[in-house]
């Protein structure tokens, strides 16, 4: 053994040789102690090696299940774990690349890495507020989690429909003390009293004194039609529908009905909308694009002025809804696990001689190949609007997918959305989505909002069999037709 060492020694690198040369008198002693040292070192190394090996086994696998001296299964298992881990990472990367992985998951990972935030219940210095924004993300059980909803309502020349709108707001069963409301009044015509009426009704509602005022207003307008124009056409509306409306606006009301809301803000701002609100004006294709961009701008003003850190949800609501389920917020929040934006179906009733009912909001749709092709053929700045021959998109419209007996809980992915009733997680806007007031992917306003939100990796859904009813506003033609039929009836006793 000694010889072996000696022989080996001669093979050692130069340093060792130099050492020998520079310390000749200690050579004999040195030779011996070096061997000892190496032996001891070898023992320690062996011990450490064995110890490490055993402790590593103990950590990664349960030794008791594995036969002694059988190292291969352990090794295989380790390899397997590594492979799984690897695959997980790969999948994650892939899904991020595909944009499928919701931003939520990525954020949750980031949240886990956060330091402990200050306790909100601690006394913060005067004027200092702290919000951990992950507490305001919006969950399926918003009402029980005390999640605050921001209800946003843009208004323009809306004096006539305000009583209807207030009835609809009161009918919301989501706790009123969890709802902040913000109105934006813009570009009303001379003589229009939207702002004044809004203020009057708001003040009364917050003092729980609104019902008598509404009843008085409703009485006043009787004979002139609940909605202002002529109620002659009501005779020509489907009987069942009218019965439903009457029931919807009559007591008994639920316990939340007369309760004041958490807060109400009224903003006034004009955007120079020169385009009239008349039916034919509103639906002229040439001005639709401009109109939609102005509306987008108004929505963004309203949103960015009203949105606060403690809002978990934003609910957009048009004024001219006639009937909507009272628990629409609770209902739509149920889809929050998978969806960030949710819209119901929107229909409107029609006089029986026009078919009794009709899909109303055509802005909620699933993109089609024809739609994409059409977009490619247009100028970068052109805005596609639905419902015109010139823009045949052949898209699947949420409105047309409706089946009266369909499951209201069915939800489908959408690309574009209409603005009549949009529930969105507040985080969608915090991420930076908005209502483009410019052409985005050949769309503007709410439809561009849908596309943009989806483009950002968030999910937009529509409920084809869950319906909100828009009011029917008879056109000039409808009214002429109705008065003709009335005259005939008077003359001949029947139609
Ligand atoms: C109020 O809510 C009830 C219950 O969901 C509903 O049937 C009714 O149509 C609603 N009323 C209005 C005016 O939308």
From TrEMBL:
Keyword Phosphoprotein, does the record have it?
A: no
State which residue ranges cross the membrane.
34-54
Keyword Protein biosynthesis attached? no
Which biological process terms from the Gene Ontology are attached to this UniProt entry?
cell wall mannoprotein biosynthetic process; protein N-linked glycosylation
SUPFAM superfamilies referenced in this protein's UniProt entry, alphabetically: Nucleotide-diphospho-sugar transferases
Q: Pfam families from the xrefs? A: Anp1
| Keywords assigned by UniProt, alphabetized | Coiled coil, Membrane, Transmembrane, Transmembrane helix
GO CC annotation, single: mannan polymerase complex
Q: Which domain of life is it from?
A: Eukaryota
Coiled-coil features, chain-numbered ranges: 79-106
* One MF term in the entry's GO annotations: alpha-1,6-mannosyltransferase activity
Which family, according to the similarity comment? Belongs to the ANP1/MMN9/VAN1 family.
Question: What's the protein here called?
Answer: Van1 protein
Species source reads: Pichia kluyveri (Yeast)
